[in-house]
Amino acid sequence: MEITDKIFKFFGGIKPNGHKAISTINPIKRLPIPKKLIIPVRQHVGKVPNIKVSVGDKVLKGQILAEPIANISAATHSSSSGTVIAIESNKIPHPSGLPDLCITIETDGKDEWIKRNRIDPSNLSSEALYETMKSSGIVGLGGATFPTHIKLNSNKIKTLIVNAAECEPYITCDDMAMQEKTKEFIEGIQITMDFLKIPHAIIGIEDNKPKAIEKLKTVLNKSKNITIKVVPTVYPSGDEKRLIYLMLGLKISKEKRPVDFGIQVFNVATLISIGRFFYHSEPVISRIVTVTGALKRPNNYEALIGTPIQELIKDAGGKSDQEIIMGGPMMGFKLPHTDVSVTKAMNCLLAITDEMKSKDTFEMPCIRCTKCVEVCPAQLQPQELYWHAKSKQFEKLTEDYKLFDCIECGCCSYVCPSNIPLVQYYRYAKSEIRDQLKSSEVADIARERNEFRLYRLEREKKERAERNAQRRAQTSDSDKKKLIEEKKAAIAEAMKRIEEKEK
Amino acid sequence: MAIIDSPAIKERSTVNMIMFTVILGLLPALFLQIGFFGYQILGNLFFGIGFALFLEAVCLKLRNYPIRPFILDGSAFVTAWLLIISVPANIPIWTLLIGIFFSIVVAKHAYGGIGSNPFNPAMIGYAVLLISFPKIMTNWPISDGFEIRNFIQFSQFFSIANINEAYDAIVSATPLDQIKTSLFLGKEVNALPISLSTLSSYQMIAILYFLGGIFLVYKKVITWHLPLSLILSIYIFSGLLHLYDQNTYMSPLFHLLNGATFLAAFFIITDPVSSPTTLKGKIIFGILIGLITVIIRNYGGYPDGIAFAVIFMNICVPLIEKFTQPKVFGYE
Ligand code: SF4
Ligand code: SF4
Questions:
Q1: Which residues in chain A have Cβ-Cβ distances shorter than 8 Å to B7?
Q2: ipTM above 0.90, yes or no
Q3: Size of interface A-B (CB pairs under 8 A)
Q4: A92-97, Cβ contacts within 8 angstroms, sequence gap of 24 or more
Q5: Predicted model pTM
Q6: Residue A103 phi/psi, 5° resolution?
Q7: Which of A409, A428, A430 most suits a substitution to test ligand 2, by most atoms within 8 Å of the C-beta?
Q8: What single string gives the DSSP state of each residue in B180-191?
Q9: Residue B224: is its pLDDT beyond 50?
């Protein structure tokens, strides 16, 4: 694909107030090592890794706590040195509020690293690199948490796009990371390009990050193979497919994946962790979290994975009973519990502001004003999706109105004058449809099973009948024999009688 | 605990803000109307809107809806306003109230209330009145030009007696109506009995509707698709007739400045509930309303056919939408 300087503006989108300045005043901060680290065993999409430690074990910083067991899986590491004091179910930051298996480490304060071997990527075969990556614990740190090594295992990729848009209001972790960890960032891009054997990468960044842009431009000064494309600040330019369109002018529907077009998109934080892993032998044991919103001192923190979030909130001047959104105000979710710890997916902790609390939620009927249509970046008809979701016309939703192309960005809800929680309706409809599909799959399986059972019964019946027939045939055979014997006997007897008479 | 659904933030936009902007767009024209034709229209607005809100409250109560938020959405207010400025200012108040009743109770609530009404409520009220009271509905007050006095007498509109008196004011058919009658009688276009001051007052009001409409587009309450397609459609179709026979058919400009062309283009056919949601659909809707209007104006039994054209096209909205669904991102 040819790369030009052109920016392809996508349809729709919104321009909410960014609130980004409040968390970018001070540099990224580090807190003292927490007394306890509560590390969820699985922090990625895919298989639960195999736990390699037991309670009482001494662990070192960077030591593998759990090892990937399948391809779609990732390792989990200890973020500091100490002792494993518990392996048990614990609260985790997930919208469901359900607990999951966590490893609790009591830190010893020494922060002692495990012995690290410097990996020289240029000396490794691509298979070896792939295997090494698997143990790095690197997953999509933009929030998707898909194991990254899978994305690197493709020789079809021609274009690498770096998602540095960071379009959600309030979130600034990528912005700050690009300013302070520019070297690792560029290293990460380089190594990923080597991995994918492609000569070119494009960084897509919103124009509300002038400092990061300037820094990147000076560093990349001579480099011809990494292009920076500055895009206007329009939410959701950081959505993968919107960003691809912005960069390349290529529209990809739900039915296709970027890989099908030779495109792979990586997030800033993910690339930095790739850079760190290969050049500094550091697996994912920390991440940068924006702690912002209704707090006295919003800031970005480089937090160890497993750090209780209350420590961050307290340091940022918040109270322990504050309601917190994980992620941004558009797509984030309210944490069911705030006594959870930092995970790889946690890019932002947003203390709910008065503005959010006072949001008008009285739902009026849809007046078909099409404000939602004007902002839908997927070019859907949100008001039709809403009508059909409400009346449960699921087939129309998927076939005619492409419900599953909805990226749940929330632009429609943001503008709706009738305050309709549109995204909630779509999520509900999507899960209903998935359930229906699942139950129809189950039904299919059941039907298949039943058909098989009937077939089996039928077959058994037939077999039984055959056996009976055979048996009957057999019996009649013996009967015949008997009859013949009897007859023979009778004849013999008769003959005897005749002979006797003749005598 | 506050309910926080994603998104947690929302633009400040409500239905009543939209309705308020619509009223703002209508205010300049109202100012001229008072200046040209007297204060009666204020009385109509006062009693008409009051009655509309009363009916709205009763219907909401009967249908078990919370009254406050729904009455404050401003939709009944705007419907009543649009009906009132579409009828002659000297209409007897009881006639007006019948129209309001049909708009609010029949066209709106009987069909499921705001968001569900397939027909434009104001136009249903208007059509009912036009069919039932053709004489009243085609007798418009005449004007001797803009008079400041009309504003000073303003306070009198609260007196019912005055409103009834208004009915006896000097009236005549609208220019559009007069011309049609004259044409039917075989007169030629350039020898028509229109008082220039009356003609110009109607046209000035029309221009203010146009400007108010531009304000709505600027405020993003409406998009340009509906008004532009209706205006161009009327212009082109009446222009074709005019080209065909200049003596029988009025100029396209006359058609734009007379009748309810601009009012309808910006304020009536843009009612979101009863117009198509797709952009292509909006354009088709506007063009067809324009075409039907030109046909009724020139060949039908009524002076201005916009109301009928709108109602007829309202029926076609689901069909238009069905065939104009735009392509989704990535499916083009
Ligand atoms: S913005 Fe809200 S009220 Fe307007 S069409 Fe969309 S869903 Fe309906
Ligand atoms: S949430 Fe879905 S329907 Fe709404 S604007 Fe985003 S993509 Fe469109």
A1: 329-331, 410, 413-414, 423
A2: no
A3: 137
A4: A92/A40, A92/A340, A92/A341, A92/A343, A93/A309, A93/A326, A93/A335, A93/A337, A93/A340, A93/A341, A93/A343, A93/A345, A93/A346, A94/A336, A95/A333, A95/A336, A96/A336, A97/A336, A97/A337
A5: 0.85
A6: -110, 125
A7: A409
A8: HHHHHTT--GGG
A9: yes
